[in-house]
Design goal:
It is built from two helices and five strands, in the order ββαβαββ. With 111 residues, it is α+β, with helices and mostly antiparallel strands. The longest helix is centred in the middle third of the chain and has 14 residues.
């Protein structure tokens, strides 16, 4: 008997941004946990870390937070484009990342 097995994409929900509110000494804080900077490189308009974090921030603002913690512990990295877009949520003007070649050239890319 031959059994066909089809490989499919399994999405691990725990690898996406998630948030919670924390109350401490009569203050409410938002905490966003981001395990990695994820993106669909084939279609950037699909789910990505920057847009998910922006949605979580808005949700936390509606909950009346007074401060925000972006928890990047154990974040293994990921998409530079997503990181730059996410930094733009907090930093309006100026560079946020500088990439310099290790091969001795002086080429610098600033985002």
């Amino acid at each position: 008997q031959v059994v066909k097995i089809m490989r499919d994409l399994v999405e691990m929900e725990e690898s996406y941004a998630k948030s919670a509110t924390v109350k401490k000494e009569n203050h409410t804080y938002g905490v966003i946990n981001l395990p990695k900077f994820y993106v669909d490189f084939k279609d950037y308009s699909n789910r990505n870390a920057a847009s998910d974090v922006a949605k979580e921030i808005e949700r936390l603002k509606q909950a009346g937070i007074e401060g925000l913690v972006l928890d990047l512990r154990d974040n293994g990295g990921g998409s530079l484009r997503t990181v730059v877009e996410m930094a733009g949520l907090f930093i309006k003007d100026g560079p946020v990342v500088q990439v310099k070649s290790s091969g001795g050239t002086e080429e610098k890319v600033v985002h």
